[in-house]
Amino acid sequence: MVVKVEVWPGGWSGRAREVGRAAVANVTPFAAVAEYVAVLYDDRGMLSSTYIGGHVRSAGFWPLVARVAGSRGASPPQSRVGDEWRELADAIWDRMYEDVRPGG
Q1: For residue 34, what are the β-bridge partners?
Q2: Which domain holds residue 55?
Q3: Residues 50 and 81 sit within 8 Å (Cβ to Cβ)
Q4: Are 63 and 55 in contact (CB under 8 A)?
Q5: What is the pLDDT along the chain (104 residues), one digit of tens a residue?
């Protein structure tokens, strides 16, 4: 799942500017209560990754989006997910938005 956040100055879609993006990967695809790895990036160059556990899939995607967004305040920039998820977080980042890679 990719969540893209845009600002529309004056409500004009033609002036839309992306201010953030999050990519979320389910690491337990067949579980009713799932675990996710997420990578978040914003227009200030802040990159972070996080692990989200215990999401009840039947609750839908909005509670998951809220938890991912809420992790931003709890995760310092460049925070690391557990070593077991690091490779996945890197792959998510590569697929999510290659042209915003810092220094790239």
Answers
A1: 55
A2: 2-100
A3: yes
A4: yes
A5: 989 999 999 999 999 999 999 989 898 888 999 999 888 888 888 888 888 889 999 999 999 999 999 887 655 444 445 666 677 777 777 777 665 554 44
- The 10 Å Cβ neighbour count of residue 72 is 18
Global pTM value = 0.74
CB contact burial 32-66 (16+ within 10 A = b; e otherwise): eebebbbbbbbeeeebbbbbbeebebeeeeeebee
Number of domains in the chain: 1
How many Å apart are CA 22 and CA 40, to the nearest integer? 4
